[in-house]
């Protein structure tokens, strides 16, 4: 039997996919991941948003950009569904996600979908 597969926010792995074009590389998380097989995900990019992009905030069931107030909910939902598909295909039961993100954060659409599907989520 191989290593347990876990879903991980790509920005925490050092991928420059955040709204500001940067990443949030987490050395602490990288140490923990040596015991797992990583399934990388960036729901915002997978949902069709560019990098860099205007920051956005979840407001109820919608996600709006912070400055122009553009409704980008459809992109966030599409990315959340793709992340859930990846998790199901890989048999993922745990996810390590970026905190304070409208996708992956504690109140994010992706985190919400994963938790409803029974995936245990931890934030970094």
Describe it.
This protein has a domain at 41-95 and 113-124. 30% of the residues lie in helices and 23% in strands. The protein is built from four helices and six strands, in the order βαβαββαβαβ. The chain has helices at residues 27-33, 43-46, 73-90, 109-116; strands at 4-9, 36-41, 56-59, 62-65, 94-97, 120-123. The strands form two sheets. A four-stranded parallel beta sheet has the order 2-1-5-6, sandwiched between helices. Helix 3 packs parallel to helix 4 (109-116). The chain is globular and about 50 Å long. The termini are far apart.
Strand/helix succession? EHEHEEHEHE
- End-to-end Cα distance, whole Å, is 28 Å
The profile of the biggest β sheet is: 4 strands, parallel
- Supply the helix-strand structural class: alpha/beta
List the uncertain runs: none
Give the SSE map.
Blueprint (H helix, E strand, L loop, with lengths): L3 E6 L17 H7 L2 E6 L1 H4 L9 E4 L2 E4 L7 H18 L3 E4 L11 H8 L3 E4 L1
Parallel strand pairs: 1-2, 1-5, 5-6
Antiparallel strand pairs: 3-4
Helix pairs in contact: 3-4
Summarize the entry for a quick read.
The protein has 124 residues and is an alpha/beta fold. It contains 4 helices and 6 strands, in the order E-H-E-H-E-E-H-E-H-E.
Task: Output the keywords.
four-stranded parallel beta sheet; alpha/beta; 124 residues
């Amino acid at each position: 039997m191989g290593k347990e597969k876990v879903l991980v926010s790509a920005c925490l792995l050092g991928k420059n996919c955040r709204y500001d074009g940067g990443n949030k590389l987490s050395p602490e998380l990288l140490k923990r991941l040596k015991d797992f097989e990583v399934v990388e995900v960036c729901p915002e990019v997978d949902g069709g948003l560019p990098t860099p992009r205007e920051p956005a905030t979840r407001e109820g069931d919608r996600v709006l950009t912070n400055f122009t107030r553009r409704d980008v909910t459809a992109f966030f939902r599409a990315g959340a569904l793709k992340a859930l598909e990846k998790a199901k295909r890989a048999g993922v039961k745990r996810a390590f996600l970026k905190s304070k993100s409208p996708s992956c954060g504690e109140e994010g659409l992706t985190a919400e979908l994963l938790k409803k599907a029974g995936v245990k989520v931890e934030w970094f």
